[in-house]
Design a protein that fits this description.
By secondary structure, the chain is an alpha+beta fold. The protein is 25% helix and 38% strand. The strands form 3 sheets. A 7-stranded mixed β-sheet has the order 8-7-14-13-12-11-15. The protein has a 6-stranded mixed β-sheet with strand order 2-1-6-5-4-3. Strands 9-10 form a two-stranded antiparallel ribbon. The protein is globular.
Length: 313
């Protein structure tokens, strides 16, 4: 073998060995990947230093050509609301935040909410899954729901409950956290008011930045709402994909679909759960209307129609 080829081969092996010894990305590192991705999308910059050549990209359940369509086409600025859910075990990070679209500058344009999952491998982003809730995505008949992006932006920052760490001795396992969060979906599906609802007494629930437990001067609880008010509302909760688990803070981030058979209606959603001692304390979700029976773009048909929980790694 020529010496030049031998040298190139040795260099490649040394480079691979050096990479193999690199420690996994910690929570700060994973958060930085989200920040870098949002800047790249805003600037329409498909930097090869960030993105793997075989990257897979979906927006609102549809696989699109990367870097030129969907939010990549019209994003003009980055909002202020930023909620990171790093998953060090799987080297993924989920994110819920706001960006601007179709603006002439970075400070104007439509505020839209974005839920995001990035998979990091070999120091590159290999998977991008995002839900974009635009002002026109939410049913106009829901008069109590403002445009999602505006509502999320107005929240300012993640609630302190979400940012508080769980004492190390009280931290649940990954499987336990997913199991608890999945009880919410199972309790909602074909709910008869008699299911298992592991809510704390002070649990609150936000949908598209709206406190859905408050109605005028009255207020209910998560448990009472499930026992009395949310009976038979959702026929099927499917493609339950738990895409990020932050054990340190007791947070689970999931993607899924709510199907309403009687009206051929599907909500595509991203949902956040704060879990303490096996009970759900806070829930926040963003969603938008999707074609009935819409797929995520990441599951098989059988998984997409299933109500089983999936631990996405």
């Amino acid at each position: 073998m020529p010496k030049q080829l031998m040298a190139l081969g040795l260099a490649a092996l040394l480079s691979a060995a050096a990479f193999a010894q690199q420690p996994p990305c910690d929570r700060t590192c994973l958060e930085h990947w989200v920040d870098s991705y949002l800047v790249a999308m805003r600037d329409a910059n498909k930097d090869l230093a960030l993105f793997a050549p075989d990257l897979k990209f979906t927006e609102n359940g549809v696989r699109l050509p990367f870097g030129s369509e969907g939010l990549w086409y019209g994003m003009s600025g980055i909002g202020t609301y930023k909620f990171y859910v790093p998953d060090i075990d799987t080297q993924q990070i989920a994110f819920l935040g706001t960006v601007r679209e179709n603006g002439k500058t970075q400070a104007d344009g439509d505020l839209v909410a974005i839920a995001l999952r990035l998979k990091i491998r070999n120091q590159h982003i290999t998977e991008i899954e995002q839900i974009v809730s635009r002002p026109s995505n939410v049913n106009s008949s829901r008069g109590d729901f403002p445009p999602t992006g505006q509502g999320v932006e107005a929240m300012g920052a993640p609630h302190p409950i979400f940012t508080t760490a769980i004492p190390e001795k009280e931290r649940a396992s990954r499987a336990e956290l997913i199991e608890t969060a999945n009880y919410y979906f199972s309790g909602l599906q074909n709910n008869d008011g008699k299911g298992y609802y592991p809510f704390t007494d002070d649990c609150v629930r936000f949908e598209n930045a709206v406190d859905v437990l408050a109605r005028g001067d009255a207020r209910t609880t998560c448990r009472k709402q499930f026992e009395e008010g949310l009976k038979g509302i959702v026929d099927r909760v499917r493609d339950r994909r738990f895409v990020a688990v932050d054990r340190e803070r007791g947070i689970v981030f999931a993607f899924g679909f709510f199907d309403h058979h009687r009206i051929n209606w599907t909500w595509q959603l991203a949902e956040l759960f704060k879990i303490e001692k096996g009970q759900i304390r806070r829930i926040e979700a963003i969603f938008h209307r999707a074609p009935f029976g819409m797929a995520s773009g990441w599951s098989t048909w059988e998984q997409g129609m299933s109500s089983e929980a999936q631990d996405v790694r």
